[in-house]
Amino acid sequence: MYQEKIEAIKAAIAKADANTPEELESFRMEFISKKSVVGGLFAEMGKIPNEEKRAFGQLVNGVKQIAEEKFQELIEKVNQANKKSKSADIDLTLPPSNHEIGGIHPLTATRQRIIEIFERIGFNLSEGPEIEDDWHNFTALNFPENHPAREMQDTFFIEKNPDIALRTHTSSVQVRVMENQKPPIRTLSPGRVYRNEAISARAHCIFHQVEGLYVDENVGFADLKNTLYHFAKEMFGKGTKVRFRPSYFPFTEPSAEIDITCMICGGKGCNVCKGTGWVEIGGSGMVDPNVLENCGIDSKKYTGFAFGMGIERIAMLKYQIKDLRLFTENDVRFLKQFRPIL
Ligand code: DAH
């Protein structure tokens, strides 16, 4: 009689299956634990006549072993399935997701490169405010009151206070440095400047300049020329030529505009350089003694040179950008071209 029962249990074990930890547990409860059907068989031992006890015991132990083997098999199976489903979350054969790599804005890159070139030859960095007073932007720089030279730069004044304006050039930082430091001074001042101009491909009301100032005993025009020549070669390449064109600025005497050979046509003449082969990158000159005196520097003992260059202009030549507005429009198609090449 019990043989039939045992055969039925064996059949049930053979048929049983488990795919989840929960199903495994059900199997354990049904066939392995003390309270399971197999456990129950051991409890029946007492009811079995003595002469059959041995045969019964062997059968029961056999079922127990079958149940345990099956249980191990099912544990293995569930574990495997578990591993597979976990690794299915990460499919190593998929192509990587497309991470966009940022780039450095061409103006930032240009400013950094300019700083690097001048730092290597002993210039430090200085800054000044963008909202500036008349003294630092004009008067100390030898722009007499009501002098037409002030009209050279269309100024944004702060309403109701003609003494305060958005700085029209970084030359204001020269004044601040000279007021606060004693020569020798070798400083570079990059920054944003403002002019009340109509926005076009060549002009903007907000742009960037970098100012350079060198004041010491015996600083001469040759130092200015050599410094800017060195800069031009470092920035644009060895073959670059520099030309100084006599000019006028109230704060320098003599004054010169700095031209370099046109990067776009290599000096042959094109529409960017208007056929001349030369492009202007800034202004320069020997600091006017009046300016030194205005800032408390003895102009009998010290001389200096200064220069101011447009960062946009330099970036346009360097990267052959034809429209200044691209710098501020944040068009990713433009900006993406300056991403690092990996
Ligand atoms: N501040 C002038 C401008 O914005 C540029 C300039 C010219 C700066 C001559 C200088 C300089 O330091 O010496 O047009």
How are the elements arranged and paired?
Elements (H helix, E strand, L loop, with lengths): L1 H14 L5 H12 L4 H8 L5 H38 L18 H15 L3 E2 L5 E3 H4 L19 E2 L2 E6 L4 H10 L4 E10 L11 E11 L4 H16 L5 E8 L2 E10 L16 E10 L1 H6 L8 E8 H9 L6 H4 L2 H4 L7
Parallel strand pairs: 1-5
Antiparallel strand pairs: 2-4, 3-4, 5-6, 6-10, 7-8, 8-9, 9-10
Helix pairs in contact: 1-4, 2-4, 3-4, 5-10
The structure holds 3,4-dihydroxyphenylalanine (DAH).
Can you give a write-up of this model?
- The protein is α+β, with helices and mostly antiparallel strands and 342 residues long.
- The longest helix is centred in the first third of the chain and has 38 residues, at 50-87.
- The model has no long low-confidence stretch (mean pLDDT 91).
- The strands form 2 sheets. It has a 7-stranded mixed beta sheet with strand order 1-5-6-10-9-8-7, sandwiched between helices. Strands 2-4-3 form a 3-stranded antiparallel beta sheet.
- Helix 3 (37-44) packs antiparallel against helix 4 (50-87).
- Helix content is 41%, strand content 20%.
- The protein binds 3,4-dihydroxyphenylalanine.
- 3,4-dihydroxyphenylalanine binds at residues 169, 171, 211, 249, 252, 282-285, 306-308.
- This is Phenylalanine--tRNA ligase alpha subunit.
- It is an enzyme of class 6 (ligase).
